[in-house]
Amino acid sequence: MDIVSRFKEIKTSVPKNVEVVVVSKTQPVELIREIHNSTGHAVFGENKAQELIRKSEEFASEAIQWHFIGHLQTNKVKSVLTKVNMIQSVDSYRLLNEINKEARKQNLIIPCLLQFHIAREEAKFGFEIDEVKRMLDTHSYDDFSNIIFKGVMGMSTLTNDSALVRSEFKSLFTYYQEIKRSYFRDNQHFSEISMGMSDDYQIAIDEGSTMVRIGSLIFGSRK
Ligand SMILES: *Cc1c(COP(=O)(O)O)cnc(C)c1O
Question: How far, in Å, CA of 149 to CA of 143, rounded?
Fold first, then answer.
């Protein structure tokens, strides 16, 4: 099956209220264009600043929405801000502050997700729940006037143990609810739970995902 058919199959298999982010990292712009032109799909995910900037410039005249999904270094914030429609991977107060500061300078409003560390692996980035609570206890979201807090994001452990994956997604759902209730009750923007990738998106949807990020299931495994 070709990439367009695989994309369409995934798209029809997920509920209408679940956004599919096509993760195009490492893939050539031709394949992005093929999906965009033949289906109209516009939301793509990239995890490297340079790569996102380069690709977004190739699509300057088209309505592609780029979601940044990787670890973002503060020194790259300035250069990606005009290119991204959402930063899904805000994993520290320092980064949040930098995004807000640069966005203000550039007169932009940047939708962001707070990335939580839910996996067993040490290597994955993200906040712990207590860190976010401490941050939001001391700073109201109004302090970040150039950020729209859209919700949360997380990555499960890379494992065949689907019970573990499910429990990690349950944790993220609970974090979302706690934060929504305590800090964003009157903020209608805070509504997204980005969880689920090629191997676990069905479990994630069962557990309340509103946004799945899918790469290899569409493009084949990355080299
Ligand atoms: C690469 C990546 C994905 C997509 O992974 P696949 O297993 O190829 O679907 C999703 N989210 C993040 C943060 C990624 O880095």
Answer: 12
Pocket of ligand 1 from Cβ distances under 6 Å: 23, 25, 47, 69-70, 155, 197-199, 213-217
Q: Please give the distance of CA 129 from its chain centroid, rounded to a whole number.
A: 18
Residue 113: partners with Cβ closer than 8 Å, 6 or more residues away: 86, 87, 88, 89, 90, 150, 151, 152, 153, 192, 194
CA of 139 to the centre of ligand 1 (A): 31
The C-alpha torsion from 7 through 12 and 14 to 19, rounded to 10°, is: 60
pLDDT digits (tens, 9 = 90+) for 67-108: 999 999 999 999 999 999 999 999 999 999 999 999 999 999
pTM reported for the whole predicted model:
0.97
Q: Hey, CA dihedral for 100, 44, 152, 155, is it positive or negative? A: negative
